Amino acid sequence: METVLPNGAQDIKPEDTNKLRYSVRQNDGSGFVFINNYQDHVENEDKKNESIDLELDNENLRIPYNGGFDLDKEESCILPFNLNIKNILLKTATVQLITKVGGNKEAYFFYQPRGMKPEYVFDEDTIKDIQISKGTINKVNGSVIVHPESSEITKVTLTDLNDEQIDLYTLTNEQSLNFWKFNYGERDNVILSSAQLLVDNNGLRFESSDNEIKIKVING
User: Fold this and answer.
1) Which of 46, 96, 128, 214 has its CA 20 to 30 A from that of 162?
2) φ, ψ (nearest 5 deg) of residue 163
3) Are strands 107-111 and 165-171 parallel, antiparallel or unpaired?
4) CA 164, CA 148: separation in Å to the nearest integer?
5) Closest CA to 206 of 178, 169, 185, 187
6) Each residue of 92-133: pLDDT tens digit?
């Protein structure tokens, strides 16, 4: 993927905390936006009501779809655009991809960068049906805009034109720090826990200095 910098990026001084620092890696109109709100030895500020316009060869995209996004100081993130998730096209998003897990149906895990509200924008022509555990779904000008509830883990189930389904989980920032993906029982598994997870042929072991260990298991 080639690197694309916005106009004036080379002129940003280390002490300049006002300008949004970002770059793009892309190939054939698909890629990722890298946003950084950190600079060492400088007091940074939370970013408020920012937006990014992507001028691609065949279209223009905006992140977010409407309005602006926030990003806490000392935070960075990688946002996808025109990401093909199986047969469904994710046009833009204000969440960062963690991983994919296979199984009876594929599951994709994203998380919210600190300060940023989650949003997915899908190409409506690639979706047959969409359901969400908690949040809103709107259809505008050929796009399906999804805003999951930001305070808890949510699941979006998408059905493509071939009647195949995938699940998209959106985690809070704190949950992403307690995310464990591991292989056991000849399959990939996901657990959320602040305890240290150790996996071997005898099973799973959790280690923690707390008196109580909390575990959340996500089944596909």
Assistant:
1) 96
2) 65, 20
3) parallel
4) 22
5) 178
6) 999 999 999 987 789 999 999 999 999 999 999 999 999 999
Q: What is the dihedral of CA 48, 32, 140, 124, to 10 degrees?
A: -160
Q: Tell me, what amino acid is at 4?
A: V
Residue type, 56: L
- Burial (CB count <10 Å: 0-12, 13-18, 19+), residue 8: exposed
| Structural domains of the chain, with CATH | 2-177 (2.102.20.10), 178-220 (no CATH)
Six token digits for residue 106? 């594929």
Q: How many CA atoms lie within 13 A of 219 on its CB side?
A: 0
Quick check: 65 and 147 in contact, CB under 8 A? no
**For the segment 42-76, what is each residue's pLDDT rounded down to a tens digit?**
888 999 999 999 999 999 999 999 999 999 999 99
